[in-house]
Structures are given as structure tokens and as C-alpha cells.
Amino acid sequence: MKSTDTNFFEDVYQVVRLIPKGRATSYGLIAEYLGSKGSARMVGWAMNQAHAMPDVPAHRVVNRNGLLTGKNHFQTPTQMQELLESEGISIKNDQIMNFESIIWSPKIELL
DNA sequence: GACATGACGGCAG
DNA sequence: CCTGCCGCCATGT
């Protein structure tokens, strides 16, 4: 066991798994919810390892602009958009349309 | 041990 | 409005 438990990553995966279908959240919101407010990069890093975790819909996690910044890390660059559109989320130019309406804040929804 | 990078975010110019 | 820089924590070289 290292000083830095993977608890942080586990928490990230836990929250991501709670994201309801047809919704999306941002790295910053997750980071803030976990208490590491401002360290959205860590959430992104966790997502990088998310591929090793089952049932982790990383495609529902986008940046605060609703832009699919991590699409390039999926099996295929189009996988993320395909999955989101399959859930009823409209995407235009790699960006979620009406993102503010589908955004899912753990600190609010899970409150 | 130090430097550079990364699926981000906020603030300053 | 758009561009650029810094801060955040962890990992890799």
C-alpha cells in the first residue's frame, strides 16, 4: 500500500457509476465533490485508469464546457460521442448541446 | 530528486 | 470575446 491509496480513484469511479443515463458531469464537479476542489486533473487521471475498471461510463464525464476532451482516449475517438448520442445526448462539434440542462452535479444530486 | 506532462479550471490581460 | 498563464496532484522519464 502506498501513501496515496487508490481510494481517490475508487471514489471517482463510484461517482461516475452513479451518473444516470442521459446525463453528464464535469471533472471539476467530481473533484470538488471529493474534496479535492481545484484538482480536476486528478479526476482526468483517474479516468485514464477507468478503462481498467468495469462499469465506469467515462464517456459521461466531460470538461466544464461540455466538450468531449477525452474522446481520444477511448477505444475509438468516436466511441464517446456514439455512446452519449445513444443515451439521448445530442453532440455537435464534439460538444454536448444544452449541456447545462443535462449536467449532473454529485454535490447536488447526491446531496 | 528534479523536470516535464496530463481526459481541467479559474483568472488576468 | 479570445488568448495565455498559473495552480492543482499524481505519474513517467
Describe the protein in words:
The protein has helices at residues 7-17, 27-34, 40-50, 79-86, 99-102, 106-109; strands at residues 25-26, 61-62, 91-92, 95-96. It has 111 residues and is mostly helical. Helix 2 (27-34) packs across helix 3 (40-50). The strands form two sheets. It has a two-stranded parallel sheet. A two-stranded antiparallel ribbon has the order 3-4. The protein has one domain: Arc Repressor Mutant, subunit A, CATH 1.10.10. It is 41% helix and 7% strand. The model has no long low-confidence stretch (mean pLDDT 91). The protein starts with 6 loop residues before the first helix and ends with a helix. The structure holds a DNA duplex (13 and 13 nucleotides).
* Second CATH tier, the architecture: Orthogonal Bundle
Write down the Rg: 13 Å
* SS class: mainly alpha
Quaternary structure of the protein: single chain
Spell out the helices and strands N to C: HEHHEHEEHH
Low-confidence stretches: none
Q: How many E-type strands? A: 4
CATH topology: Arc Repressor Mutant, subunit A
Query: How many helices?
Result: 6
Q: Averaging pLDDT over every residue, what do you get?
A: 91
Record the strand order, biggest sheet: 1-2
Our estimate of the beta-strand percent is 5-15%
Query: What is the number of domains?
Result: 1
CATH superfamily heading = Winged helix-like DNA-binding domain superfamily/Winged helix DNA-binding domain
Q: Which of globular, elongated, flat, extended, rod-shaped describes the shape?
A: globular
The helix content, as a percent range, equals 40-55%
Main sheet summary? 2 strands, parallel
